[in-house]
Amino acid sequence: MHCHNNLTTINIPEGAKKIVLVGNPNVGKSVFFNTLTGVYVDVSNFPGTTVDISHGRFGSDVVIDTPGVYGISSFNDEEIVARDVILSADLILNVVDAVHLERDLFLTLQVIDTGIPVIVAINMMDEAAEQGIKIDIDLLEHLLGVPVIPTVAIKNKGLDQVKARLYEAQVGNIPADLKKQLAETLNRIGCWAEALLVLEGDPHVADRHGVEPGTQRDEIYHARRHRVNDVLQHVVSETQEGIRFSTKLGRLMLNPLTGIPFFFVALYIMYYVIGVVVAQDIVGFTEETIMQGFYEPAIRSFIGRFISEESILGMILIGEFGLLTMTATYIVGLLLPLVVGFYLILSIMEDSGYLPRLAALVDRLMNVIGLNGRAIIPLILGFGCVTMATITTRILGTQRERTIATAILGLAIPCSAQLGVIAGMLAGLGTKYITIYVVVLILVLGIVGKVLHKVLPGESSDLLIDLPPIRLPGVKNVLKKTVTKSHAFLEEAVPLFALGALIISGLQITGLLDVIQTLFAPITEGLLLLPRETATAFIMGMIRRDFGAAGLSDMALTPEQTLISLIAITLFVPCIAAIIVMFKERGAREGSLIWIGSWIAAFLVGGIVAHIIL
Amino acid sequence: MTLDQAKRGQRLYIASITGDTVRAQAIRFGIFEGSEIHCAEKLPAGPIVISKGKQEIAIGRRLAENIEVQPA
Fold first, then answer.
1. How many other CB atoms are found less than 10 A from the CB of residue A480?
2. Among A28, A536, A553, A566, which has the highest number of CB atoms less than 10 A from its own CB?
3. Who among B30, B57, B62 is closest to A467 (CB)?
């Protein structure tokens, strides 16, 4: 068999076998991975995606994890990554959920059909037993043609068996019809697994071989689905009917009457953890006490011994916007705790099964602005860090949706750093002003989304989402996810923050910052009816959003002026790192439109509010 | 009739699903022409939640309009 190795990102030692873990989302695959590899694990980002794959050693071989997928194809980034890792596998450990065999065995049969040796672990056997599901393991083994091992991974049951029998993995039963169908494509391509995907119409794999994607997906999928149902009929017997508590709880989260209050409670907990505990207490300590209190003076005096702070290099390294001062403080003191906090909450919501239900609950609302329920994820993340959220828009189905979500993030979502300062200033103004602020922002968000939805060509994708059972998330799993995601984000964002700092230092050194400041003044006084000094805050806001807001808090403003300036600064351009990411993700044209659009929105809306209330 | 017209608690057969990608994604969850499903929840003007065995799936309203069903 001549198959391509698509895994250029992972170093595979000479002669080592590639053992690939495959499974649907939420089947407990990571426990298997940890058991096989132990503590020494590498995480690498798959080029062009937000998808990270972990790999580690099992004896002299390499174990590679894949993102949870429902099938091998290329409907989204996760699937593309999983597909390429699977195609390069020497041996596949397929983990399936005993309770959801009807869904999971579809992937199992597809994996078997690739002709790669497979071993199947049926996980969560205890849950299945609890629900009166009986599975005839021996018969399943016989029907699939590969070893099948029952396990309860989180209770460490059956894992030794998996380890011991891993190399008994074998090529399973591939139906004769499919073999016949494959014969011709196989002749041209020379690799069984890739021939299968070409036949199933995968455009990328077909392109790699310079052939047209096949048109037989429907036929093959249907045949496979019938095989799954046939297998199930023989091996599964259910003794118990009725709805379980977790199913009921899941329904309550969906039903608007109970689901909406639940959502607000979840939001409040999230606000409390991120907005109060992390953004105020923890960041107060890490940013002010540690970084600004100890680190910055230390690095200034250390570098200052060799380079004067007033020299050009000195300004770049340890100046106001220095790489070793502001950038380091920002990333370590502010961003790191926030990003970790956000990913921690997101991982808990993800692993508990709540996130897909939330997506369903808000789907209708999101449709108004041309998005589907899934888009709630980047929008919520935006309140943490807009840069992080912009990268996450990759989970959305179409380019159109990504454009809309990115524009909303750039315009109307204040990030947590900024929100902290804004909340502090608003709190002193009273309920009336807080309400105006929130209503204006929601209006802008709605209008921007609605307008883009109208003007952008094409159609947005619809919601089709699996609602996994509500479960108590595992601590280890949540922590691991948080670390992996935070790490991946920082790896991507740190160079951009550094670049942003460099640009600003450059503006300062060349004196351009002062020039901009002078040019800017008329808009503030004429349009926004604010003192001309507020221009400085806006300039600062171009660098870091919270700088802008913080700049305002030092000024003597009337309550009306505070409100106007806060609305304008919130709508104003995203921070320099976020805008760089937007350029990278959406291209120069869209990136600059969003940036210019933020100027217009900020001063237009700010101006309108100013002339109404003043 | 189409899936968006289903009533909460109703049992249905899938008659046809329009759209290649959607059909391919749905069949993985065990939902395809001929399969019997249960309308578990309807969000007002929003997604339809269908269940089949232990599997639950939320389907956007517009998508549901493209799925032909028959009462079982």
1. 18
2. A566
3. B57
